[in-house]
Amino acid sequence: MATKSKAANRVKEYTFIWEGKNREGKRVNGETHASTETVAQSTLRRQGITVSKIKKQRYQTGKKITEKDITMFTRQLATMMKAGVPLLQAFDIVGRGHANPSVGRLLLDIKSEVETGNSLSTAFRKYPLYFDALFCNLVQAGEQGGILDALLERLAEYKEKMLAIKSKIKAALFYPIAIIAVAVVVTVVIMLFVIPAFKEIFTDFGAELPLPTQIVIGISDFFVEYWWIVIPVPVAAIWFFLYTWKRSETMQMVMDRYLLRVPVFGDLVRKSTIARWNRTLATMFAAGVPLVESLDSVGGASGNYVYKVATHRIRNDVSTGMSLTSSVQSTNLFPNMVTQMISIGEESGALEDMLGKIADFYEDEVDDAIAALSSLMEPMIMVVLGVVIGGLVVAMYMPIFKLGAVV
């Protein structure tokens, strides 16, 4: 309740650009953050500045902030920290130089939070839409241990690897989805415009049409008469399905469980989830975060609700004294190789290295699975398109072939 009240009472601040003279009469300019222009002028007056001109800074609308933007920012910040650039100056450089104005505003807001005395991890936690618990926990561990630059570099590497896996999966799915979408559009155009033209020609024949032709014409008649249902309803159904999938926990649980069982594709989902799970745990463990606290972030980062629930159960088991190997094995979600390597890591005290090796192995497996899936999908798509489009063409030409045989 106290947290909510504090958030509710927090006044929104704006950036004001000003010009004026200091106590020595020298012309100066800069920017300040305040809730209103009056507050900004009062603050500058207390600093001994006589303001001659002040205006609120207006930003461009900007695009949506993506995971790629956050990954790029993490890498830039890590590089600057390694080079010895002060934290606030690094935020200023990255924020003002970013191509997306939305990212620039976000980074300058975070910089303002740090300037007011908040820690960097606290500032990140105020923007959970862009910085998850894993990100904030690693930054906090870096601040507490005095190794923020090293932790940021490790975090940048982690996010780059996760982004690479997601990009490869999206690239593998883009081609078949694009082909199927084009095939659907072509089929709808044929049903609405091409087949009705053939129907008028066949009406003049006066002969009974072959059964396949009658079926296709019947489907075309349904499309023409009920186009206002045939086109909008499937589109709305797909949109509603995707919308619910993103926002309904029940739908996520059902779909994530189903995806793991889908032939061929389910194996790819499982391998990518195991790779993310181990990579996340290795990154947290290497940062010095205790195992139980690390598992709090690992479940959500795995990207699959089934593994998220299982990780919560693993965390509870580990917190009661059970070994990580036994708790992981009890879920029946991880291959025997994973549990064996975790066991070796626990016994030898090299758990971080073993988790990293598991992640490397399954990331390579994901690459191989994507290559195999891409080579398999192409002939399957061609067969489906040949059957659908070719079937329509043959059905519409059958009466013409029949007429030619009679003549």
Record keyword descriptors for this entry.
407 residues, mainly alpha, three-stranded antiparallel beta sheet, 75% helix, flat, disordered N terminus
What would your notes on this structure say?
This protein is mostly helical. Helix content is 75%, strand content 6%. It has 18 helices and three strands. A three-stranded antiparallel beta sheet has the order 2-1-3. It is flat and about 100 Å long. The model is unreliable at 1-10 (pLDDT under 50).
| Count of distinct strands | 3
Overall shape: flat
Distance between the termini: 88 Å
Structural class by helix and strand composition: mainly alpha
- Sheet-strand content, in percent, reads 5-15%
Residue ranges: pLDDT <50 for 5 or more in a row? 1-10
Average pLDDT, rounded to a whole number, is 83
Q: Element order, helices and strands?
A: HEEHEHHHHHHHHHHHHHHHH
List the helices and strands and how they pair.
Blueprint: H1 2-9, E1 14-21, E2 27-34, H2 37-46, E3 50-56, H3 67-82, H4 87-97, H5 101-115, H6 120-125, H7 133-145, H8 148-203, H9 211-225, H10 227-230, H11 232-247, H12 249-259, H13 265-286, H14 291-301, H15 305-319, H16 324-330, H17 336-348, H18 351-406
Antiparallel strand pairs: 1-2, 1-3
Helix pairs in contact: 3-4, 3-8, 4-5, 7-8, 8-9, 8-13, 8-18, 9-18, 11-12, 13-14, 13-18, 14-15, 16-17, 17-18
Summarize the structure in short.
With 407 residues, the chain is mainly α. Helices cover 75% and strands 6% of the residues. The chain is built from 18 helices and three strands.
